[in-house]
Protein backbone atom coordinates (compact mmCIF):
# COMPACT_ATOMS: atom_id res chain seq x y z
CA UNK A 1 0.00 0.00 0.00
CA UNK A 2 1.45 3.33 -1.03
CA UNK A 3 1.78 5.98 1.65
CA UNK A 4 -0.34 8.52 -0.20
CA UNK A 5 -3.31 6.16 -0.32
CA UNK A 6 -4.29 6.32 3.31
CA UNK A 7 -4.43 8.68 6.27
CA UNK A 8 -3.99 7.44 9.82
CA UNK A 9 -5.85 8.93 12.77
CA UNK A 10 -6.00 8.03 16.43
CA UNK A 11 -8.88 5.63 17.21
CA UNK A 12 -11.94 7.21 18.76
CA UNK A 13 -11.74 6.83 22.55
CA UNK A 14 -14.72 5.51 24.56
CA UNK A 15 -17.04 8.37 25.46
CA UNK A 16 -16.83 8.94 29.25
CA UNK A 17 -20.32 10.44 29.36
CA UNK A 18 -21.78 7.27 27.91
CA UNK A 19 -19.94 5.19 30.50
CA UNK A 20 -21.26 7.39 33.32
CA UNK A 21 -24.79 7.08 31.95
CA UNK A 22 -24.46 3.29 31.86
CA UNK A 23 -23.47 3.31 35.54
CA UNK A 24 -26.42 5.57 36.42
CA UNK A 25 -28.90 3.39 34.52
CA UNK A 26 -27.54 0.23 36.14
CA UNK A 27 -28.00 1.79 39.56
CA UNK A 28 -31.58 2.75 38.74
CA UNK A 29 -32.40 -0.76 37.50
CA UNK A 30 -30.96 -2.51 40.55
CA UNK A 31 -31.94 -0.11 43.32
CA UNK A 32 -35.41 1.15 42.41
CA UNK A 33 -38.89 -0.36 42.15
CA UNK A 34 -39.68 0.30 38.50
CA UNK A 35 -42.64 -0.47 36.28
CA UNK A 36 -42.24 -2.84 33.33
CA UNK A 37 -42.40 0.11 30.96
CA UNK A 38 -39.69 1.98 32.87
CA UNK A 39 -37.46 -1.10 32.86
CA UNK A 40 -37.99 -1.54 29.12
CA UNK A 41 -36.94 2.06 28.46
CA UNK A 42 -33.86 1.81 30.68
CA UNK A 43 -32.69 -1.52 29.29
CA UNK A 44 -33.14 -0.17 25.77
CA UNK A 45 -31.13 2.95 26.52
CA UNK A 46 -28.37 0.98 28.21
CA UNK A 47 -28.30 -1.48 25.31
CA UNK A 48 -27.89 1.38 22.84
CA UNK A 49 -25.03 2.78 24.92
CA UNK A 50 -23.32 -0.61 25.12
CA UNK A 51 -23.72 -0.92 21.34
CA UNK A 52 -22.13 2.49 20.79
CA UNK A 53 -19.15 1.41 22.90
CA UNK A 54 -18.70 -1.84 20.98
CA UNK A 55 -19.91 -4.04 23.86
CA UNK A 56 -22.19 -6.11 21.67
CA UNK A 57 -22.77 -9.04 24.03
CA UNK A 58 -23.96 -6.77 26.83
CA UNK A 59 -26.06 -4.85 24.32
CA UNK A 60 -27.78 -8.04 23.11
CA UNK A 61 -28.58 -9.05 26.70
CA UNK A 62 -30.26 -5.70 27.29
CA UNK A 63 -32.23 -5.74 24.03
CA UNK A 64 -33.55 -9.21 24.77
CA UNK A 65 -34.44 -8.00 28.25
CA UNK A 66 -36.40 -5.14 26.69
CA UNK A 67 -38.63 -7.61 24.87
CA UNK A 68 -39.50 -9.34 28.14
CA UNK A 69 -40.90 -6.07 29.43
CA UNK A 70 -42.24 -4.62 26.18
CA UNK A 71 -42.59 -7.32 23.47
CA UNK A 72 -43.72 -4.80 20.89
CA UNK A 73 -40.66 -2.52 20.79
CA UNK A 74 -39.63 -2.45 17.13
CA UNK A 75 -36.33 -0.67 17.78
CA UNK A 76 -35.16 -3.48 20.07
CA UNK A 77 -35.86 -6.04 17.34
CA UNK A 78 -33.97 -3.84 14.90
CA UNK A 79 -30.86 -3.88 17.08
CA UNK A 80 -31.18 -7.65 17.58
CA UNK A 81 -31.32 -8.07 13.81
CA UNK A 82 -28.23 -5.91 13.30
CA UNK A 83 -26.24 -7.88 15.86
CA UNK A 84 -27.41 -11.18 14.37
CA UNK A 85 -26.23 -10.00 10.95
CA UNK A 86 -22.85 -9.05 12.36
CA UNK A 87 -22.60 -12.53 13.91
CA UNK A 88 -23.57 -14.22 10.64
CA UNK A 89 -26.83 -15.58 12.11
CA UNK A 90 -28.95 -14.55 9.15
CA UNK A 91 -32.00 -16.61 10.07
CA UNK A 92 -32.29 -14.78 13.38
CA UNK A 93 -31.63 -11.48 11.61
CA UNK A 94 -34.47 -12.00 9.14
CA UNK A 95 -36.85 -13.01 11.94
CA UNK A 96 -35.96 -9.86 13.88
CA UNK A 97 -36.31 -7.53 10.91
CA UNK A 98 -39.61 -9.13 9.91
CA UNK A 99 -40.81 -8.44 13.45
CA UNK A 100 -39.79 -4.79 13.04
CA UNK A 101 -41.89 -4.47 9.89
CA UNK A 102 -44.87 -6.15 11.56
CA UNK A 103 -44.67 -3.74 14.48
CA UNK A 104 -43.68 -0.60 12.57
CA UNK A 105 -44.02 -0.70 8.81
CA UNK A 106 -42.60 2.82 8.58
CA UNK A 107 -39.41 2.10 10.53
CA UNK A 108 -36.76 4.32 8.88
CA UNK A 109 -33.89 1.82 8.62
CA UNK A 110 -35.30 -1.69 8.64
CA UNK A 111 -35.23 -2.01 4.84
CA UNK A 112 -31.55 -1.05 4.80
CA UNK A 113 -30.73 -3.45 7.60
CA UNK A 114 -32.70 -6.39 6.18
CA UNK A 115 -31.28 -5.66 2.74
CA UNK A 116 -27.73 -5.75 4.10
CA UNK A 117 -28.49 -9.01 5.93
CA UNK A 118 -29.78 -10.53 2.69
CA UNK A 119 -26.71 -9.27 0.83
CA UNK A 120 -24.28 -10.92 3.23
CA UNK A 121 -26.43 -14.06 3.30
CA UNK A 122 -26.01 -14.31 -0.49
CA UNK A 123 -29.72 -13.70 -1.14
CA UNK A 124 -29.05 -10.97 -3.65
CA UNK A 125 -32.51 -10.73 -5.22
CA UNK A 126 -34.07 -10.18 -1.80
CA UNK A 127 -31.35 -7.66 -0.96
CA UNK A 128 -32.03 -5.84 -4.21
CA UNK A 129 -35.75 -5.48 -3.43
CA UNK A 130 -35.22 -4.06 0.06
CA UNK A 131 -32.34 -1.80 -0.93
CA UNK A 132 -34.24 -0.51 -3.97
CA UNK A 133 -37.18 0.41 -1.74
CA UNK A 134 -34.80 2.06 0.72
CA UNK A 135 -33.12 4.03 -2.08
CA UNK A 136 -36.48 5.15 -3.46
CA UNK A 137 -37.24 6.89 -0.15
CA UNK A 138 -34.22 9.23 -0.49
CA UNK A 139 -32.67 9.13 -3.94
CA UNK A 140 -30.18 11.88 -3.13
CA UNK A 141 -28.45 9.69 -0.51
CA UNK A 142 -25.08 8.35 -1.71
CA UNK A 143 -25.02 5.52 0.82
CA UNK A 144 -28.37 4.18 -0.41
CA UNK A 145 -27.06 4.35 -3.97
CA UNK A 146 -23.96 2.35 -3.04
CA UNK A 147 -25.67 -0.44 -1.14
CA UNK A 148 -28.19 -0.91 -3.93
CA UNK A 149 -25.26 -1.00 -6.38
CA UNK A 150 -23.57 -3.75 -4.35
CA UNK A 151 -26.72 -5.90 -4.61
CA UNK A 152 -27.22 -5.07 -8.30
CA UNK A 153 -23.62 -6.02 -9.01
CA UNK A 154 -24.20 -9.61 -7.89
CA UNK A 155 -27.11 -10.01 -10.30
CA UNK A 156 -26.15 -8.13 -13.48
CA UNK A 157 -22.77 -6.33 -13.29
CA UNK A 158 -23.07 -4.45 -16.58
CA UNK A 159 -26.50 -3.09 -15.72
CA UNK A 160 -25.36 -2.34 -12.16
CA UNK A 161 -22.67 0.05 -13.39
CA UNK A 162 -25.06 1.70 -15.84
CA UNK A 163 -27.61 2.25 -13.08
CA UNK A 164 -24.92 3.57 -10.75
CA UNK A 165 -23.98 6.26 -13.26
CA UNK A 166 -27.65 7.12 -13.73
CA UNK A 167 -28.43 7.30 -10.02
CA UNK A 168 -25.38 9.42 -9.34
CA UNK A 169 -27.04 12.24 -11.26
CA UNK A 170 -29.58 12.58 -8.45
CA UNK A 171 -26.96 13.13 -5.75
CA UNK A 172 -26.03 16.49 -4.27
CA UNK A 173 -22.55 17.90 -3.87
CA UNK A 174 -21.94 16.55 -0.37
CA UNK A 175 -18.62 14.84 0.34
CA UNK A 176 -20.06 11.32 0.25
CA UNK A 177 -20.76 11.66 -3.46
CA UNK A 178 -17.02 11.01 -3.84
CA UNK A 179 -17.64 7.48 -2.59
CA UNK A 180 -19.89 6.88 -5.59
CA UNK A 181 -17.45 8.60 -7.93
CA UNK A 182 -14.81 6.08 -6.86
CA UNK A 183 -16.91 3.21 -8.22
CA UNK A 184 -17.73 5.08 -11.45
CA UNK A 185 -13.96 5.53 -11.91
CA UNK A 186 -14.26 9.33 -11.90
CA UNK A 187 -11.73 9.58 -9.08
CA UNK A 188 -8.88 7.36 -7.91
CA UNK A 189 -8.39 5.87 -4.44
CA UNK A 190 -5.70 8.52 -3.81
CA UNK A 191 -8.11 11.30 -4.75
CA UNK A 192 -10.80 9.89 -2.49
CA UNK A 193 -8.41 9.83 0.45
CA UNK A 194 -7.30 13.40 -0.26
CA UNK A 195 -10.95 14.49 -0.35
CA UNK A 196 -11.50 13.36 3.23
CA UNK A 197 -9.50 16.39 4.38
CA UNK A 198 -11.53 18.92 2.41
CA UNK A 199 -13.81 21.08 4.55
CA UNK A 200 -13.63 18.79 7.55
CA UNK A 201 -14.35 20.74 10.74
CA UNK A 202 -12.85 18.64 13.52
CA UNK A 203 -11.10 15.39 14.37
CA UNK A 204 -14.36 13.49 14.86
CA UNK A 205 -15.56 14.57 11.43
CA UNK A 206 -12.31 13.32 9.91
CA UNK A 207 -12.54 9.97 11.71
CA UNK A 208 -16.11 9.52 10.47
CA UNK A 209 -15.11 10.27 6.89
CA UNK A 210 -12.14 7.95 7.08
CA UNK A 211 -14.21 5.09 8.47
CA UNK A 212 -16.45 5.38 5.43
CA UNK A 213 -13.63 5.93 2.96
CA UNK A 214 -11.67 2.93 4.27
CA UNK A 215 -14.68 0.62 4.07
CA UNK A 216 -15.69 1.57 0.55
CA UNK A 217 -12.09 1.49 -0.61
CA UNK A 218 -12.03 -2.04 0.74
CA UNK A 219 -15.13 -2.88 -1.31
CA UNK A 220 -13.56 -1.24 -4.36
CA UNK A 221 -10.30 -3.17 -4.00
CA UNK A 222 -12.16 -6.46 -3.58
CA UNK A 223 -13.91 -5.78 -6.87
CA UNK A 224 -10.49 -5.28 -8.45
CA UNK A 225 -9.34 -8.63 -7.06
CA UNK A 226 -6.90 -6.94 -4.68
CA UNK A 227 -7.89 -8.83 -1.56
CA UNK A 228 -4.76 -8.07 0.47
CA UNK A 229 -5.21 -4.35 -0.09
CA UNK A 230 -8.93 -4.65 0.60
CA UNK A 231 -8.24 -6.39 3.91
CA UNK A 232 -5.94 -3.55 4.96
CA UNK A 233 -8.68 -1.02 4.32
CA UNK A 234 -11.28 -3.00 6.26
CA UNK A 235 -8.87 -3.25 9.19
CA UNK A 236 -8.36 0.52 9.05
CA UNK A 237 -12.14 1.01 9.15
CA UNK A 238 -12.29 -1.17 12.26
CA UNK A 239 -9.42 0.76 13.85
CA UNK A 240 -11.53 3.95 13.96
CA UNK A 241 -13.70 2.43 16.74
CA UNK A 242 -16.85 3.96 15.25
CA UNK A 243 -18.96 1.01 16.33
CA UNK A 244 -22.29 2.58 15.36
CA UNK A 245 -21.32 3.08 11.71
CA UNK A 246 -22.44 0.36 9.32
CA UNK A 247 -19.00 0.61 7.74
CA UNK A 248 -17.50 -0.54 11.04
CA UNK A 249 -20.26 -3.08 11.76
CA UNK A 250 -19.77 -5.00 8.53
CA UNK A 251 -16.02 -4.72 8.01
CA UNK A 252 -15.64 -7.98 9.94
CA UNK A 253 -17.98 -9.76 7.53
CA UNK A 254 -15.95 -8.42 4.61
CA UNK A 255 -12.74 -9.70 6.20
CA UNK A 256 -14.34 -13.11 6.76
CA UNK A 257 -15.35 -13.23 3.09
CA UNK A 258 -11.71 -12.61 2.13
CA UNK A 259 -10.31 -15.14 4.60
CA UNK A 260 -12.87 -17.86 3.88
CA UNK A 261 -13.92 -17.47 0.21
CA UNK A 262 -16.85 -19.52 -0.95
UniProtKB/TrEMBL annotation:
It comes from the Bacteria. InterPro entries: Lipoprotein_NlpI, TPR-like_helical_dom_sf, TPR_rpt, Ycf3. GO terms for biological process: receptor-mediated virion attachment to host cell. SUPFAM superfamilies: TPR-like. The keyword Acyltransferase does not apply. TPR repeats lie at residues 74-107, 211-244. Keywords: Cell membrane, Lipoprotein, Membrane, Palmitate, Repeat, Signal, TPR repeat. GO terms for cellular component: cell outer membrane; plasma membrane. PANTHER family: TETRATRICOPEPTIDE REPEAT PROTEIN 6 (PTHR44858), UDP-N-ACETYLGLUCOSAMINE--PEPTIDE N-ACETYLGLUCOSAMINYLTRANSFERASE SPINDLY-RELATED (PTHR44858:SF1). May be involved in cell division. Homodimer. This is Lipoprotein NlpI. It comes from Aliidiomarina maris.
Amino acid sequence: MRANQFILVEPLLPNPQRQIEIAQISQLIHEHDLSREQRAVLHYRRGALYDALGLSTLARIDFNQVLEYRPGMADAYNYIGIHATQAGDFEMAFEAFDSVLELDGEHPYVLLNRGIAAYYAGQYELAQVDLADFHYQAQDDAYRVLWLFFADLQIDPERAYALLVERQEGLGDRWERNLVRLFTEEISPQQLMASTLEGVEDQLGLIERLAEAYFYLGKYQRMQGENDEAANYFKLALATNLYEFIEHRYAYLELDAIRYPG
